[in-house]
Amino acid sequence: MREKLRVAAYAVCVRDGQILLARSPAADGTPEWVLPGGGMDHGEDPYDTVRRELLEETGYRIEVTGLLGIDSLRQRIVSGTPLSRATDHHGVRIIYTGEIVGGQLTHEVNGSTDMAAWHDLDAVPDLRHVRLVDVALRLWRERPAAGRFAEEQS
């Protein structure tokens, strides 16, 4: 089985009771809402990653205002073709808080997302969204000192 590690940085940007999210196609092509952010380039600092990715996906420049925590997700991904190998994927996601300091809302062109939008915090549970949005909002609301929840610690 092939092993793959992906380190990424994301930002929770909340203002006036709304959260900024980006839309990305799921594996089946159905759009789902994600946190703005993405994978680190080799040699890039996660702080720079989150600012670059947020600008690319939303058009906004942010000031990173805090570190909420780190989420780790490991999953086995099985390819649909008989000749390709399964992948043991490990995602490490660094989650920051951010404040918009410039730019204007725009949609990414030819990227991993196709649009960005502000959503009422109360509406998020009804949106089709990835698990990381829930994790990040819980970190944002509860602010655990260790940057993760007691039930996740080993």
Average pLDDT level: 92
Secondary structure tally, helices: 2
The largest β sheet comes out as: 4 strands, mixed
Helix content: 10-25%
Tell me the number of strands.
Answer: 8
What does this structure look like?
The protein is of the alpha+beta class and 154 residues long. The protein has one domain (2-142): Alpha-Beta Complex (Nucleoside Triphosphate Pyrophosphohydrolase). The protein has helices at residues 46-58, 131-142; strands spanning 2-12, 14-15, 18-25, 31-34, 37-39, 60-77, 87-103, 115-120. It has a four-stranded mixed sheet with strand order 5-1-7-6. β2 and β3 (18-25) form a beta hairpin. The model has no long low-confidence stretch (mean pLDDT 92).
Short characterization:
It is built from two helices and eight strands; from the N terminus they run βββββαβββα. It has 154 residues and is of the alpha+beta class.
Keywords, separated by commas or semicolons:
4-stranded antiparallel sheet, 8 strands, 154 residues
List the helices and strands and how they pair.
Elements: E1 2-12, E2 14-15, E3 18-25, E4 31-34, E5 37-39, H1 46-58, E6 60-77, E7 87-103, E8 115-120, H2 131-142
Parallel strand pairs: 1-7
Antiparallel strand pairs: 1-5, 2-3, 3-4, 3-8, 6-7
